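Why should sequence recovery work at all? Because a backbone constrains its sequence more than one might expect. Tight turns favour small or flexible residues, buried strands favour hydrophobic ones, and helices have their own preferences. The token representation captures these environments compactly. In the example below, the structure is given first.
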């Protein structure tokens, strides 16, 4: 998590000039207050006025762009920053933010170019080192990530930036399985900023709570009534839910999980009709496409997909333990590629399904556009293996198009007990808003049914070209199921695939702690611990 306001403060310090210093300082103060209060729309409105009034003051471009990015309007943010870059091509703050926002858009090549240029101008520029370290981690370049993040920490001169960088280091150590180091990073954050419950949430994912006297549990309970803002309360509630589940107090666990979900659902305001219409449009578009047309791509991509929390992380760890497989992790590249195809007809502010309506068919030209978009983004990953995995669960939406774009790809659909899947989603919080259906049991159940319906459609279309792997079978008959899995992927036997917990690949999902342990059975039928609380869900999916 990046502390964007830190950049704004530095911009103001660097760009206020003597022309109208008092007025500019006053405007800066107003923008900072708006930003701190997450009133991004007000920053944008005021920032655009100030850009017109003071077109040479880069601070206003940066503040406006960062606020646009905070609202998900990354392309508009890039447009504003490129104007600023035209005014001053070597401004390190503009370059840094161009790197940050391009990274948000998974335009990693461009992001790295901007960040490298900023560091070339100022070798120890902490902001760019931090962003570059996070970009390295996203691309699996852990040694480079470690180097850049620790270098950034050396440049830190305030508690505020110590918090930001230690959060980044904690996330890195967590993802590569260095849990003790990660806990140390997050504890540093908590000591500096006791209201930062993101650190508590991260600690809870790695920590096994044994009783009510656990020091971290007691610490979180003391914070509970002091924290007032929704974001920190939400994270604290989910962390407390995890703690009480470990202890075996399932009633108390569900109480906090429910509180966390209420906040998350209110924040995202997920509308299930958008996905219902999207799934309908996906089927319509695929039926009208030329199924005999495919690209000539030779890429051997193993797509691992299904509902979130269905075992996709475990399956990727198994397959990427193979000597001929590179594990790329959870990529958004396929969704980016699909959106690239419809972008020329897309209307701003429209839901995705509405833009799909403008596309009559997915022809060869569209397939090539998608292929080039995807493969271009893959270039940021350095690997020599013959196969690469992409384990974005929601790729189940695009299966038909994926088989046309990459005819040599393998599709592994991870299946799991419906109640276990839904409850596991409900009790976890996720970054971003793409899993907004998880925070309300009714919405979650309805989404699950829509997913099952779409998967039936794909299975009817592709028969034996989709490998439906059942999580419970994998857990109970590991060697037999791994053998079948590797055979489907055209991979020879590799003993390493039986020990996925030894795989050193970074893991950034909610399974990051469990995946570092040998395969276990305790996650099966876990929903029964809160059976009485899930009556509404059971009515929908059972």
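From this structural description, the recovered sequence reads:
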């Amino acid at each position: 998590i990046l502390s964007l306001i830190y950049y704004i403060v530095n911009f103001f310090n660097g760009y206020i000039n003597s022309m109208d210093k008092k007025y500019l300082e006053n405007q800066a103060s107003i923008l900072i207050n708006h930003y701190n209060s997450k009133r991004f729309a007000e920053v944008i409105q005021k920032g655009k006025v100030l850009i017109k009034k003071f077109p040479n003051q880069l601070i206003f471009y940066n503040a406006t762009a960062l606020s646009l990015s905070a609202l998900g309007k990354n392309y508009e943010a890039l447009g504003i920053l490129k104007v600023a870059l035209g005014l001053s091509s070597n401004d390190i703050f503009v370059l840094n933010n161009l790197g940050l926002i391009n990274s948000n858009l998974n335009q990693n090549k461009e992001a790295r170019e901007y960040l490298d240029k900023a560091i070339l101008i100022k070798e120890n520029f902490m902001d760019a080192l931090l962003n570059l370290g996070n970009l390295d981690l996203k691309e699996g370049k852990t040694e480079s990530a470690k180097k850049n993040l620790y270098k950034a920490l050396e440049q830190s001169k305030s508690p505020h930036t110590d918090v930001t960088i230690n959060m980044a280091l904690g996330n890195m150590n967590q993802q590569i399985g260095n849990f003790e180091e990660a806990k140390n990073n997050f504890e540093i954050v908590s000591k500096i900023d006791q209201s930062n419950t993101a650190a508590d949430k991260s600690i809870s994912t790695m920590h096994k709570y044994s009783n009510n006297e656990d020091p971290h549990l007691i610490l979180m309970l003391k914070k509970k009534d002091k924290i007032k803002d929704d974001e920190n309360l939400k994270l604290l509630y989910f962390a407390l839910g995890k703690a009480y589940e470990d202890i075996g107090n399932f009633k108390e666990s569900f109480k906090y999980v429910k509180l966390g979900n209420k906040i998350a659902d209110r924040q995202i305001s997920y509308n299930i009709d958008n996905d219902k219409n999207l799934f309908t449009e996906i089927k319509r578009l695929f039926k009208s496409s030329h199924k005999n047309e495919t690209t000539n791509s030779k890429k051997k991509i193993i797509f691992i997909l299904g509902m979130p929390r269905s075992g996709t992380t475990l399956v990727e760890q198994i397959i990427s333990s193979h000597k001929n497989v590179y594990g790329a992790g959870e990529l958004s590249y396929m969704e980016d590629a699909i959106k690239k195809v419809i972008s020329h007809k897309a209307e701003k502010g429209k839901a995705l399904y509405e833009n799909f309506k403008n596309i009559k068919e997915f022809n060869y030209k569209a397939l090539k556009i998608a292929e080039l978009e995807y493969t271009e983004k893959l270039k940021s990953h350095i690997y020599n293996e013959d196969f690469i995995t992409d384990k974005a669960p929601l790729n189940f939406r695009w299966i038909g198009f994926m088989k046309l774009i990459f005819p040599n790809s393998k599709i592994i659909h991870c299946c799991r007990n419906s109640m276990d899947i839904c409850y596991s989603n409900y009790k976890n919080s996720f970054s971003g808003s793409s899993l907004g259906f998880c925070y309300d049991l009714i919405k979650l159940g309805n989404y699950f049914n829509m997913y099952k319906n779409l998967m039936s459609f794909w299975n009817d279309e592709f028969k034996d070209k989709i490998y439906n792997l059942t999580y419970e079978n994998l857990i109970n008959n590991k060697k037999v199921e791994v053998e079948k899995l590797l055979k489907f992927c055209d991979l020879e036997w590799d003993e390493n695939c039986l020990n996925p917990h030894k795989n050193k690949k970074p893991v950034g999902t909610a399974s990051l702690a469990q995946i570092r342990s040998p395969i276990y059975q305790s996650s099966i039928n876990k929903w029964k611990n809160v059976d009485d609380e899930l009556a509404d869900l059971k009515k929908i999916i059972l």
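A few observations help interpret the result. The mean pLDDT is 89.
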